[in-house]
Protein: DNA repair protein MmcB-related protein
Organism: Shinella granuli
Amino acid sequence: MTIVSIHNDNPLIDGRQSDRAMMVRRGVQRMLTEMRHAVLPELTLASGRRADLISLSDRGEIWIVEIKTSIEDFKVDRKWPDYRRHSDRLFFATHKGVPLDIFPEDCGLILSDGYGAHILREAPEHRLPPPTRKSVTFAFARVAAGRLLLAEFAADTRGGGPDMSAIVSGKRDEPA
């Protein structure tokens, strides 16, 4: 679930996402939620890369979904192989206007229409090492809790609260 703002200043939509990418994201989020996954958009990983969507299944599996909305979008982005180091399963998600044969066979494939999505190809499992699983799960939990707190502060009309950008990105300064 994304944070809703009456001021149309959702910090999870930073201008990098096109309307099409947001449509794909919305459908995939709905599908994953129906599958009983906890879902977070735009999670910064330990490598510094930012996953479009990351989910945690009720069995503890970590999935990353990379959204691609055009052939060009796929061709210019070569960072996606790094996401395997942070997930048990790696998927691409797209819409019907993108040829499906451009996506690698060794990744899962999801087709979204904005109202829902379907897994066209399951992603092979690449189980994370326990220390990596722990690190990703803790990052997921910290950011999810921070965004929930942010939503509460946003609903509080009295103002105040923590730095929104730090909560949204998951980047925090280490205590001295």
